[in-house]
UniProtKB/TrEMBL annotation, chains A, D:
Cofactor(s) this protein cannot do without: [2Fe-2S] cluster; FAD
Record note on cofactor: Binds 1 [2Fe-2S] cluster per subunit. Binds 1 FAD per subunit.
Matching Pfam families: DHODB_Fe-S_bind
Listed PANTHER family: DIHYDROOROTATE DEHYDROGENASE B (NAD(+)), ELECTRON TRANSFER SUBUNIT, DIHYDROOROTATE DEHYDROGENASE B (NAD(+)), ELECTRON TRANSFER SUBUNIT-RELATED
UniProt keywords, alphabetically: 2Fe-2S, Electron transport, FAD, Flavoprotein, Iron, Iron-sulfur, Metal-binding, Transport
UniProt-listed InterPro entries: Cyt_c3_hydrogenase_gsu, Dihydroorotate_DH_ele_sf, Dihydroorotate_DH_Fe-S-bd, FAD-bd_FR_type, FNR_nucleotide-bd, PyrK_electron_transfer, Riboflavin_synthase-like_b-brl
Annotated family: Belongs to the PyrK family.
Residues noted as binding [2Fe-2S] cluster in the record, renumbered to the chain: C238, C243, C246, C258
Binding-site residues for FAD, renumbered to this chain: G91, T92
SUPFAM superfamilies: Ferredoxin reductase-like, C-terminal NADP-linked domain, Riboflavin synthase domain-like
Protein name: 2-polyprenylphenol hydroxylase
Record GO terms (molecular function): 2 iron, 2 sulfur cluster binding; flavin adenine dinucleotide binding; metal ion binding; oxidoreductase activity
Transmembrane segments: none
TrEMBL record, chains B, C:
Active site residues of this protein: C149 (nucleophile)
Protein name: Dihydroorotate dehydrogenase
Catalytic activity as recorded in UniProt: (S)-dihydroorotate + A = orotate + AH2
Cofactor list: FMN
Length: 272, 326, 326, 272
C-alpha cells in the first residue's frame, strides 16, 4: 500500500484516509534481557506520523490468534520504528522468535498522544514496560529550548531502557524495586528543587506504567496540584476505536482507551 | 513466519481500501438495494473510527452499533479475551443512546451516501418500541432488532422464545414502514421456530448469528478474564455453525430474506453463506483486526461472483440460492 | 513456517508417549478413581488404532465409541470437513454393536488395566435400556449415555428436553449400579435445566460438550461437503463455549461431578476446564490429529498441577474448583 | 522421538508401539509442473517400514487447519521419503510454498499395502495423482525375478511421473487425456498378449486414481476375471483408524479406508 497516496485522499467528510493493516519488514531484533525484546520495523507512515504515546497494533502470524497486540512506539529513526516489549504470552513469544528479515503485520499509529504543547518542566515517569512511550516523549521533547525534561524510571531489576532514554534526555534517573520506586524518585527530585523551582505550576508529569504505580503518581501530583497525563493500558478488541471494548471509567463516563486515550489527564480520570 | 504464508491467510495485506470503487454485483434485501452483498455487522462499525479507512457508501450496507432509548455504559473492563480463531467480548451494548445517534451518526452516514441498517438495543419491549418509534421517522434504511445479545440482562430472553418474539413484533410492526430485521441468537435448541415466529409476525428479514456464549479463564490466576465472566464468541470459529443455521432456515423458508454473519474473513467465506441461502453477508470480527476488511471481502466476493452468474443474477433481484436436497 | 513456531503450537513434537509413565495427580469421578484427570473422549478412541501409540491404562479413563443394541452403519461418506480451528463430522455413530463390544474391546481394555467409560448410543429409550442392561453386568467402570449426538435421527431430542431426560433416567437408573454419566449437547437454549434434570433423576455425573451443529459448503461446487449435509463441530473453536457451559453448571451445582470436553489441545486448555469446575477432562479432536495427544496433554497437566496444590488436592478426593463470584 | 527405541517397545497386547506424529525435515522440494510438487522428507521410520500403497499424513503448520492431509508414499531412498502431490487447496498450497530446510509434521506409514506376495504379471494402473502409490509398488516389485511389471499411466496432460516410474519398471506406457485413458492402455496391452500369455490368471492389477477411472478398471478386470486391487481415496479425520470417518461401502459393510484400506480387492468392494 502506498502511504503517500493514501494520505492524499480524504473521506467524504474531508478527513484524511489512513493506511489500514499492512505487512512490514523487521529490520532490528534484539533481546535486551531474557524476556524483553527490542523490535524495529520499517514503516514510513508510522515513522512520519507517530506522536508521543501513540501506539501500534502488531498481529500474530498464527491465524488462531486474531486479536491485536498493542505496543507503544518507543523510538523513531528515519523510516524505522522501534518497540520494546516484555514476553508475557503467545503473541509476544512469537514476536520474540522472529528475526531480522521476517515480516509482521501492523496498524497505526493509533490513539491520542501526550500533550507536549506547553513549555515548562516535564517529568517523564515510566515504570517497567510503561517506559516505551516515555522514551518516545523524551525523543519528541529533545532539542526543544522551551522545555526541560527529566526521566524518572522504575525497573523491576534490569535497566533495559536507560540507554535509549539517555539518547534523548540529559537527566535520566532510574531505580529498581529493591531500592524503591518512581515515587522515591519524584520525592528526591522535589527535594532538589529550590527557590522559584519550588513553584510547580509549570511542571507536567507524563506517566506510564503499572496501574498501581500510575495511581500513586496521580496521588502524588494531586497533593501538589501538579498537572499529570496518564497513559493507560487496557485489553483491546480493535485498537482503532470501533468496538468499544477497551473502556476506562472517566468523569465523562466510560471512554475508549484506544482512541479517546490511551492518554488521559488526572482530572479526566478523577484520580486523586 | 515467512511472508509466503501471509499471502494465503492474510489477504488484506497491501490492499488499498481507500481507492474509489464500485462493485459489479449487488443484492436486494427486503426491497432495499445493497451495492454489494457485503455489509458491516452491528457493533463493529463506528463511524469516526472506520470512515477514515474507507468510504462506507461503497458497501452494501452499514449496520450500526445497537442504540437504546438512553445512553448505556455497558459492562466493566476487561471486555475482550482471545479464543481459538475468535474472541469473546462482553461490551454489553455500551452506546450513547438513540437521540445522539439521530443527531450525529445517522445523518452523517446518510450524507456520505451509505445504506444504513440501524441496530436497536433494549432491555424490554418498551425500550425496543421507544427506539423504533424514533427511528421510524429517520433516514435509516432498515431497522435491526437485537433480541440476541448475550451480554445484557434479558438480552436473549425474547430471542429464545417464539411467543415473546411474537408479542414484541406485534408491538413494533405498526410503528414503522421500514423493513424490520430480527437478529437471531445461535444459543438455542433450534433456530427455525424462532425464525418462523419472526417471519409469521411481520418481520421483513432475519439476520444471524449473534455471538455464542463463551468464556476464558486465566490459568495463571484461575479467574475469568472478562469482568463480566462470560461474553459472546465471534470470529472464524463460529462460521460453520452460522452456515448450518442459515442453511436450515433457508430450507424451511425458501423466499424470506436472510442476512448472514459469523466469522466471515474472506470472499470465499461470504460465498459459502450465499450458497447456504443468505441474501447478504455482514462482516464483524474481521473488521476489528483490519479496518479495511469489509472492503477487501466485498472486492474478493465481487470477483468470485463473476464466475457464478446464476447466483449473482438471483441476488441482484433479491432472490437467494436454494439447495434442493437429494 | 519455521521450526520455531512449531515449539509454541505443536508441543506433541518429539513427545514419546510410549515411555512407561504414571501421573502424580489423579482425580475421582463419581467414586471412580482416575489416574489422571485426562481421559479420551467417546468416538475418538479406537482400541486397535490407539493402543499401538500408548498404553491406555496410564490415562484417567478411556471413553469408548458409542455402542448401540445392534451394529450401525452410520452416515455415507464424506463424513468430515475442516473448519477454522476444528472439524465437522457426520459419522452417525457407526459401531459394531454392544455384543461385539462386550466380547472384544471391553475385555481387552480391562485386561490392559484401563479405566473404561462405556459410551451408549440409541435411537430410543428402548435402545438405551437394552445396552445399559447388558453393560450393567460387564466390567465397564462407568456408563455414559449419549443423548447429544447431532448426527443421528432423534439423537438430541432427549438431550434437549428435561422431561424426556427424566423419563429416560427413571428407566435406566434401576438397571445398573454403575455410575451413569449423561452426555450433554451444547445446542440448547440453556444447559443448566438439562443438567438439573440429569442430577435430580439419578445421574452420577454429566459430561459435556458434545459437538455443535455445523456445516461446510464447497464453494467450487456450491454443495455441502458432508454427505449428511450437517455434522458436529469439535476442536479448539468450541473450547470457550464448553468452558462457559461447564462453569454455568458448576455455579448452579457445587458438588456434582462434571467431565469436560471440547477443544482440549494442551494441558493449559485442560486446566481451564478444571478451574471452570470440571472434575476431569476428556480429549477428542486433539487425538485425531496426533494419536499421542491424550498422553502429552496428561503429562502437561500433571506438571501444571504441581504448582496448583489446592486444585490438585481437591481433585484427588473427588472435589472440584468453585469460583466464588465477587 | 527415537524411532529405534519406540520400535522395540510393545503394548500390553504385545503389538509394537509406533511413533506418533513428529516433525521432520524437508530435504527435497521441486515443482514438477505448475501445480504438482515433489516433496522429500527425512524420516527413517517411514523409509524403513512403508509398504507399497501405504500413505502418511502431513499436517499444516497453520493451527487453523487441523485436519490431516494424507499422501501416498511414492518413492523411498535410504532414509528419505518422497511424495508427489497436486496443489488443490489450502494445505497443499502451504506445502508447495515450503522450502528445503523447512520442517513439516508427519504421521505414518499408515494403511494396508498392496498385496505383492504372489508371483506373476503386475499391471500397475495409475491415473493422475493416483500414480504415487503405483510408483512405490513399482519400486517394491523391481528386482524381483518372479514378477513382471508393466506400468500403465493416465495423465491429464503433463507426464510428471514417467521418469520416476522408469527408474523401477522397464515397461512404462503413458497416455494423456487427448489420446485416451488407462482403459485404452489396458486394451492395447491385452492385444499384445498372445499364446499362453492370453491366460490372465497370473495377472494382478494394482490401481489408483480418480474414482470413475478405478470403477472402469474394475469393470475391465471383472469382465476378464482378472484379480484387481484398488487403492481408494476418502476424506479422513485421523488417518490411523480411530474416528470411523473415512468409510467406503464393502461387501462386509462400511469399512475404514485408512486402516482397513486404502487397498481393497475388487471383490471386497463388490465392483463389477
Ligand atoms: C496502548 C497499549 C500500549 C502498550 N505498550 C506496550 C509496550 O510498549 N511494551 C509492552 O511490553 N507491552 C505493552 N502493552 C501491553 C501489551 O499489549 C501486552 O503485553 C501484549 O498484548 C501481550 O500479548 P501476548 O500475546 O503475549 O499475551 P496473551 O496473554 O497471550 O494475549 C492474549 C490477548 O490479551 C491481550 N493482552 C494481554 N495482556 C495485555 C495487556 N497487558 N494489555 C493489553 N492487552 C493485553 C493481548 O493483546 C491479546 O489480545 C501495551 C498495551 C496497551 C493497551
Ligand atoms: C490415502 C490417500 C492418499 C492420497 N495420496 C495422494 C497423493 O499421493 N498425491 C496427491 O496429490 N493427493 C493424494 N491424496 C489426496 C490428498 O490427500 C488431497 O488432495 C489433500 O489432502 C488436499 O489438501 P488441501 O489442504 O490442499 O485441500 P483442502 O480442500 O483445503 O482440504 C480440506 C480438507 O479436505 C481434505 N481433502 C481435500 N481433498 C481430498 C481428497 N481428494 N482426498 C482426501 N482428503 C481430501 C484435506 O485432507 C483436508 O483435510 C490422497 C488421499 C488419500 C485419502
Ligand atoms: C465487539 C462486538 C460488539 C458487538 N455489538 C453488537 C451490537 O451492538 N448489536 C448486535 O446486534 N450485534 C453485535 N455484535 C455481534 C456482531 O454483529 C455479529 O453478529 C457477530 O460478531 C458474529 O459475526 P463475526 O463473527 O463476523 O464477528 C457485536 C460483536 C462484537 C465482536
Ligand atoms: C469423529 C468423532 C466421533 C465422535 N463420536 C462420539 C460418540 O460416539 N459418542 C459421543 O458421545 N461423542 C462422540 N463424539 C464427541 C466427542 O466425544 C466430544 O464430545 C467432542 O468431539 C468435543 O470434544 P473435542 O473438541 O475434544 O473433540 C465424537 C466426536 C468426533 C470428532
Ligand atoms: S479496542 Fe476497540 S474501541 Fe478500543
Ligand atoms: S480417518 Fe479416522 S478412521 Fe479413517
Amino acid at each position: 500500500m502506498s502511504c503517500a497516496r493514501t494520505f492524499l485522499q480524504t473521506n467524504p467528510e474531508g478527513r484524511a484516509y489512513l493506511p489500514s493493516r499492512r505487512t512490514v519488514e523487521i529490520v532490528g531484533h534484539e533481546l535486551l534481557t531474557e524476556s524483553i525484546v527490542q523490535l524495529t520495523v520499517r514503516d514510513e507512515y508510522i515513522a512520519q506520523h507517530a506522536q508521543a504515546a501513540q501506539f501500534a497494533n502488531l498481529y500474530s502470524s498464527n491465524s488462531l490468534q486474531i486479536s491485536p497486540r498493542p505496543f507503544g512506539v518507543a523510538e523513531v529513526h528515519d523510516d524505522e520504528v522501534t518497540f520494546l516489549f516484555a514476553v508475557v504470552g503467545r503473541g509476544t513469544e512469537e514476536f520474540r522468535d522472529k528475526q531480522v528479515g521476517d515480516t509482521i503485520d501492523i496498524l497505526g499509529p493509533l490513539g491520542k498522544s501526550f500533550d507536549l504543547s506547553e513549555p515548562g518542566r516535564y517529568l517523564l515517569v515510566g515504570g517497567g514496560l510503561g517506559i516505551p512511550p516515555i522514551a518516545h516523549a523524551a525523543q519528541k521533547l529533545s532539542g526543544r529550548s522551551d522545555v526541560q525534561a527529566t526521566a524518572l524510571l522504575g525497573y523491576r531489576d534490569v535497566h533495559f531502557a536507560d540507554e535509549m532514554l539517555m539518547r534523548h534526555c540529559s537527566d535520566v534517573r532510574a531505580i529498581e524495586n529493591e531500592q524503591g520506586n518512581v515515587i522515591t524518585l519524584l520525592d528526591q527530585w522535589l527535594a532538589e528543587q529550590d527557590g522559584d523551582a519550588r513553584n510547580l505550576s509549570d511542571v507536567h508529569i507524563l506517566t506510564c506504567g503499572p496501574h498501581p504505580m500510575m495511581k500513586a503518581v496521580a496521588s502524588w501530583a494531586f497533593k501538589r496540584d501538579v498537572k499529570a497525563q496518564m497513559n493507560l493500558e487496557e485489553r483491546m478488541g480493535c485498537g482503532y476505536g470501533t468496538c468499544v471494548v477497551c473502556i476506562t471509567p472517566t468523569i465523562h463516563g466510560n471512554q475508549k482507551v484506544c482512541i479517546e486515550g490511551p492518554v488521559f489527564t488526572r482530572e479526566e480520570l478523577g484520580w486523586e | 513466519m515467512s511472508a509466503r504464508e501471509t499471502t494465503t491467510e492474510l489477504q488484506h495485506v497491501h490492499f488499498d481500501a481507500t481507492e474509489p470503487r464500485t462493485f459489479r454485483h449487488g443484492t436486494v434485501v427486503a426491497g432495499v438495494p445493497w451495492k454489494s452483498p457485503i455489509g458491516t455487522a452491528a457493533g463493529t462499525y463506528n463511524l469516526d473510527a472506520c470512515s477514515v479507512y474507507y468510504n462506507p457508501a461503497i458497501l452494501g450496507a452499514v449496520s450500526t452499533k445497537g442504540v437504546s432509548p438512553v445512553p448505556w455504559e455497558g459492562n466493566p473492563a476487561p471486555r475482550t479475551a482471545e479464543t481459538p480463531a475468535g474472541t469473546v467480548n462482553s461490551v454489553g451494548l455500551q452506546n450513547p443512546g438513540v437521540d445522539h445517534y439521530l443527531e450525529d451518526d445517522l445523518p452523517r452516514l446518510k450524507a456520505m451516501g451509505a445504506t444504513v441498517v440501524s441496530n436497536v438495543a433494549g432491555h424490554s419491549d418498551d425500550d425496543f418500541a421507544e427506539v423504533v418509534e424514533k427511528l421510524a421517522k429517520s433516514e435509516a434504511d432498515m431497522l435491526e432488532i437485537n433480541v440476541s445479545c448475550p451480554n445484557v440482562k434479558s438480552g436473549t430472553s425474547v430471542g429464545k422464545d417464539p411467543v415473546a418474539l411474537c408479542t414484541l413484533l406485534k408491538r413494533l410492526r405498526p410503528l414503522t414502514d421500514k423493513p424490520l430485521i430480527i437478529k437471531l441468537t445461535p444459543n438455542v435448541d433450534d433456530v427455525v421456530p424462532i425464525a418462523r415466529a419472526a417471519i409469521e409476525n411481520g418481520a421483513d428479514a432475519v439476520s444471524l448469528i449473534n455471538t455464542f456464549v463463551g468464556m476464558r479463564i486465566d490459568t495463571h490466576t484461575g479467574r475469568p478474564i472478562l469482568a463480566n465472566v462470560t461474553g459472546g464468541v465471534s470470529g472464524p470459529a463460529v462460521h460453520p455453525m452460522a452456515v448450518a443455521m442459515v442453511y436450515k432456515i433457508r430450507q424451511a423458508f425458501h423466499d424470506f430474506p436472510i442476512i448472514a454473519m459469523g466469522g466471515t474473513f474472506s470472499g470465499d467465506d461470504a460465498l459459502e453463506f450465499l450458497y447456504a441461502g443468505a441474501n447478504a453477508v455482514e462482516v464483524g470480527s474481521a473488521a476489528l483486526v483490519d479496518p479495511a476488511a469489509p472492503v477487501r471481502i466485498a472486492t474478493e466476493l465481487d470477483e468470485l461472483l463473476d464466475s457464478r452468474p446464476e447466483l449473482a443474477d438471483a441476488l441482484a433481484v433479491g432472490k437467494n440460492w436454494i439447495h434442493v436436497q437429494d
